[in-house]
Amino acid sequence: MENMLVLADDEGIFGSSMSDSTRAMVTEEAHDILVVVYCFENGINFEKLMDEAMDAFVKFASVYDAESWIV
Q1: Number of H helices, E strands in the chain
Q2: Which end of the chain, N or C, is less packed with Cβ atoms under 10 Å?
Q3: Residues 6 or more apart in contact with residue 35 via CB below 8 angstroms
Q4: Mean pLDDT, each 10-residue run in order, the chain (71 residues)
């Protein structure tokens, strides 16, 4: 994963813009879920995209008490 953006913790890499690991997959037992959106293009209305994603999570996945950040 050299020169790639990755998600990692003390146990190692668990995701990237190309793939995820079984350690970080969402299961029916999951309670706290982190969704990371990689955006490599300019000119995208990212706030609108995030709002639409949040609406979809609420509608289709019964998400509640959600927060979002743009870093």
Answers
A1: 1, 2
A2: C
A3: 53, 57
A4: 80 80 84 83 89 91 85 77
Closest CA relative to residue 35, chosen from 61, 10, 4, 11: 61
Maximum C-alpha span of the chain: 38
CA distance 53 to 63: 11
**Would you state the structure tokens that stand for residue 62, as one six-digit string?**
């019964």
Cβ-based neighbour number of residue 52 at 10 Å: 11
The token duo for 25 is 């997959």
Residue 24: its pLDDT value, please? Answer: 82
